[in-house]
Amino acid sequence: MTNTEREQTLVKKLGHMIEEERKQNKIYGLKLSKTHVNLARKSYVQAWSTWWTGKLPPELEVDLVMAFEDHSKLIDDALLLAVEIEYFSKGKRGNFYQGLNQAQAFAIFGFDGIVLWHLFRDVEQDMISSYASAVKDLIEGFSLPIVYFASEITEDWKFRCFQPVSDTEGDLSYIIAWMRNHFNDDKYSNPLLFSQKLPVHRHELAERIRQRRRTLKTVLGIP
After folding, report:
1. Residue boundaries of the structural domains of the chain
2. In terms of pTM, does the model score above 0.85?
């Protein structure tokens, strides 16, 4: 099995686990979760046809999409999160910045928030710390509105975190709730959705991104 196949299998397992937690109301406010959401499908055409002029749509798949209730109603009742998951295992480590470009690309589709989640198994602790530190420095140095998690998967399917805080361990529902709570802070909101966060000459861009967000909600079945 290739590392890509291992990652796909891992994402599916996480998706099943999250859905079970959702059904049991163990993740507060989670309304929907889906894995491997292919934004190149025809049903999403309104989300990319206004800026993609080629014959084929952009190849872009979101590993995990989650919709939460948004009581603050920053835009409406829903908070849409896109999660890019990258898996690192013994002998298959990849680049420390893996997934960062994909995560940034999700913003143009109108997700409210973006998460980059690096998952490690059977990788040396020092290596995990080095990867996590490097990505944190990039995101904070460029003030990217991306929530970054780096976690080691334990044998009993707990998640030992190295970022955002090291030496913290919890089950999946704890980690997902922690991710969601980051978006109570406006600094992590997708800036493309808000005209006040854009240069004056690009204010109209926010409405286009919000229209794509409305398309996302419709296709995902979120009222």
Report:
1. 3-220
2. yes
